[in-house]
Design a protein that fits this description.
7-stranded mixed sheet, 36% helix, 14 helices, alpha/beta
Length: 392
């Protein structure tokens, strides 16, 4: 739990400190200084950047690791271990796994699978060999008849570090949220299922009718969620708000976060209400939303984004940092904050996300390779052994 990194360009909240040495003692950063003597066993960063360890507040990547191909299901414990290697290689040291509490065919989710994944995540998080800080984002389908009760049974009674359980209230009914333009959902159905446009349109029609019949479940869940968020039992996310009215509703639920706002109006109203906003790293990397919604880079340029989440691909976070800087959307310290201190503050983790004395010693050494950034080494206080080698 004691280590040091020298000869790095330390990215601080408002500047970049060249030729820096960062010292971590008993897991806590004790010094960030330019030049000067470094401990004899300090790892040489070879002039690369040093970021705080990245914080990812929403990742569905474990679902893809669990089922890499249709009809190919891997053991959850193996999937967690396999996926954490990808996550750490992307410079992410704290990750919230999105676990969907719903019985839905679209993503092949089920309540049984949700509980199985939570069990596997919690086992890995509690063990001494974990490569990252594993956490859970509890995703509740607003209209699922069994998801709400299952979520209530699953939520932890307390959280040792004070960060409240993170719950996302989601309604993916076509015609609202991410797919407020149902045509985009029809395109998704046609492509993912290999059916014609007419068949996709019929599928969406049937799905809307089916989900309209489940609206009562949304109304049953909201009072409990509102009370739990208001009393501090949970930290509540409103998922894919489209309009200012959607955000007003979320504020009435005591939501603290507007996740993936789809329009400028929604993001701006969230800011007015004091809600934190989260956008997608893949959106930044691609330059657009895959669902035809607002560009995350545009929200960032307007000061309407507090942080980025990987959504489904961990490496998009460090990739997004490079894109934002290269395109002149913001400077490096601001871009790094969107994947470190910004997300940490959003979910209430006050002990990480900045290279400052007194905070956790989560470090990522990141090299610039043309227009892209590549993670070369990662350090965490919990590592049983530190391999700080940095490639030339």
């Amino acid at each position: 739990m004691t280590y040091a990194v020298r000869n790095v360009r330390a990215v601080l909240p408002d500047t970049v400190l060249d030729d820096a040495t960062i010292v971590v003692e008993d897991g806590i950063i004790t010094s960030v200084k330019q030049g000067g003597a470094a401990p004899p066993d300090a790892h040489d960063g070879l002039g690369a950047f040093c970021f705080p360890g990245l914080v990812d507040t929403h990742s569905d990547g474990l679902e893809k690791e669990l089922r890499p191909r249709p009809q190919v299901d891997l053991p959850p414990d193996f999937a967690v271990r396999s996926f954490e290697g990808r996550v750490r290689a992307a410079g992410v040291t704290t990750l919230y796994h999105g676990v969907g509490f719903e019985n839905g065919a679209k993503y092949q989710r089920s309540i049984a699978l949700a509980n199985s994944l939570c069990d596997a995540i919690e086992r890995r998080a509690a063990g001494p060999e974990a490569l990252i800080d594993h956490r859970i984002l509890y995703r509740l389908d607003a209209r699922d008849p069994e998801g709400f009760e299952a979520l209530q049974r699953r939520l932890p009674i307390r959280v040792d570090d004070g960060a409240k359980p993170l719950v996302s209230f989601e309604d993916h009914t076509p015609g609202q949220g991410q797919y407020s333009n149902r045509t985009q959902f029809e395109i998704y159905i046609a492509g993912s299922r290999g059916v014609s446009d007419d068949v996709a349109r019929k599928i969406v029609d049937e799905l809307i009718i089916e989900r309209d019949q489940l609206l009562v479940n949304r109304e049953q869940a909201l009072p409990w969620l509102t009370h739990a968020a208001g009393t501090g039992t949970i930290r509540l996310m409103a998922h894919d708000p489209v309009s200012a009215d959607d955000v007003d509703d979320a504020a009435s639920w005591n939501a603290a976060i507007a996740e993936f706002p789809t329009t400028i109006d929604a993001a701006r109203r969230a800011q007015n209400h004091g809600l934190r906003t989260v956008s997608g790293g893949p959106n930044v990397l691609r330059g657009q939303s895959h669902s035809g919604n607002i560009s995350a880079a545009e929200l960032i340029s307007l000061g309407l984004c507090n942080g980025l989440a990987s959504d489904y691909m961990p490496s998009t976070l460090v990739g997004a940092v490079g894109v934002l800087v290269n395109r002149g959307v913001c400077g490096l310290p601001q871009a790094v904050a969107l994947v470190t201190s910004g997300p940490a503050e959003t979910v209430g983790l006050t002990d990480r996300g900045r290279l400052e004395p007194g905070l956790r010693g989560d470090l990522a050494v990141v090299a610039s390779e043309g227009s892209w950034l590549t993670v070369r080494a990662v350090f965490r206080p919990e590592d049983n052994s530190i391999d700080g080698s940095v490639e030339n």
